[in-house]
Amino acid sequence: MEIVSVAKAQTLDQSFLATAVNEAANIKKLKPVMQLTAEYVELAKPGESFVGVYAGLTSINVADKDTGELKEIEAARFITPDKKMILNAGWVLVNELKKIGIPLGAPLQVTYTGKKENTKIYSIALLG
Known about the structure:
The protein is α+β, with helices and mostly antiparallel strands. It is 17% helix and 46% strand.
């Protein structure tokens, strides 16, 4: 799966601009604390897993492998222990997260358990 773009529209209002100007004045004193550019993580072998803090769902555009046509799909976001944002758009994973109603900030382990026909099956465990 090739991710072509992740898009969210943002507007700049007067209140934001006033705050941003103040923040920009001190920006050289700040250090990076987390990588926000999302990386797609594809679990390929049964038993592979990752851990992360659930950071909600987003929309991504993917190119169809056969036609090259772009389509928008939902993907789950996670913040990993090494302070990276990762994505996975597995249909079963995204739908399980929605069905369970996982709250933002929940620490999870996601494991690829195998395939059922052409569909990847995932196990989601709450960490604590």
